Fold:
Amino acid sequence: MKQLGTVAIVGVGLIGGSIGLALRKRELAEKVIGIGRRQVSLRIARRVGAVTNTTIDLAKGVESANLVILCTPVGDIIEKAHEVAKHAPEGTLITDAGSTKSILVKELDGKLPRGCRFIGSHPLAGSERTGAGNSDAELFEGKIAIVTPTPNSQAADYDLIEDFWEALGSVVIKMSAEEHDKALAVTSHLPHLAATALAATIPESLFRLSGTGLRDTSRLAGGDPNLWLQIVAQNRGPVLAALKQYGSQLAALHDAIRDGNDERLMEILEKGKKHRDALGS
Amino acid sequence: MKQLGTVAIVGVGLIGGSIGLALRKRELAEKVIGIGRRQVSLRIARRVGAVTNTTIDLAKGVESANLVILCTPVGDIIEKAHEVAKHAPEGTLITDAGSTKSILVKELDGKLPRGCRFIGSHPLAGSERTGAGNSDAELFEGKIAIVTPTPNSQAADYDLIEDFWEALGSVVIKMSAEEHDKALAVTSHLPHLAATALAATIPESLFRLSGTGLRDTSRLAGGDPNLWLQIVAQNRGPVLAALKQYGSQLAALHDAIRDGNDERLMEILEKGKKHRDALGS
Structure:
């Protein structure tokens, strides 16, 4: 792709830092400006080479940006996008890396001032590690990045965002924000809630009897409750639908076990295994 | 511990093979006889050094055994124990490595012929890999082994079984078979069913959108449905109770999300994180 000039990253944690590091390693941007709320995080981002410049002043940080990536918690993205649009050069393109898309797109698509435009993105990449200190230039390599343009979106804007993620190594999938949110409710938000409910179910007296199986199954529950509160709040309908489907499967298991219906139990165990094997290791 | 003489292992898969390898590496047994149904598995067990001798004839395999370890699927243990007691030297001690204990202990404690005695064991060790070819002499190192004696059990028998697992590197916990089954329903059988239901809930069309989170949370669903059918069938009551507790947590999450009750949602997310963090990585 063509060189991006100045890229501003708002929120320099693991995702923002990794985007910065990937851009710099691939020489895709002349300047990468890290914008955050705490000097300490920004210092770390600078030290690992994720950004070339840093500031806690968003207005100043975006004033010469050619592209702005919002990597804050999803609950802050709408507000930050409006703030960026006030201060960035006219017509600046903005994208994000948030785990939900419908509400963001609804509030930002065609609604930004001064010709600024928003196209939603969601890189399906992450790590148990957090913070810019764990930035990884290869975090997006071979991973899916979902981009959610609308009928309003300009083709050139979409192409640039697609090129951007592809340049970072991602495989881009285009879908609507609603389609994204329904899909991720099942593949991401549901696993998080299933892990949380499982961890919450285990009484402390049994912690010492936990094995690797329980630890794998409940791993996601270790995520930041504040982030997950925001994600769930922004995707309530699809998340509730996913929880219902999961509840039905669990009820089917429960009833088959209660009734001694081995045939039905086997059917569900085999379906689970078939699906799991297809997901790969 | 004192040298065990001849140890017979019935069922030489990952667990049986690893026990054999650990016994040989630590020079705890003079002979380790692997007993199985298929020559091909026994050849693998011999080749990796897990056993010194092999046979598909159980009667012959146990005829000079000082200790017999049943490592077959749980559904076969009762039958195998009776068969062993018919052919082993009078008064031979038998233990197992099965994932359930109550039914086994109920059917075997004080009920074996010719002075043979059964004490249940369950090493909390395993791997995604299966088969004797993946045997690991350190599989039990630092792991918990639960031993479930009854008021009938002789102290010397219990001591030998405790010494046996400790010699393999395990930390032994003594509990009743009923206590074991209730605990494992929550820490092991429930995670398996939660993972199975999750994998079964994901439609094939969304497999491509799966990330590491979903893969971790559903990993257990890849286990052998035949084995899990047997485990669940032998622990129906506690498993149903565990599924109910899990269902209640999920319902609490569902209702908090539906009602926009962020305080309640946060409470559950935080409890899940606290418990998960305590389980360790």
Summary: The beta strands of chain B are 6-10, 31-35, 53-55, 67-70, 93-96, 117-118, 120-123, 144-148, 171-174. Residues 179-279 of chain B form a domain with the 6-phosphogluconate dehydrogenase C-terminal fold fold (CATH 1.10.3660.10). Chain B touches chain A through 86 residues (CB under 8 Å). Residues 259 and 265 of chain B are 10 Å apart (CA to CA).
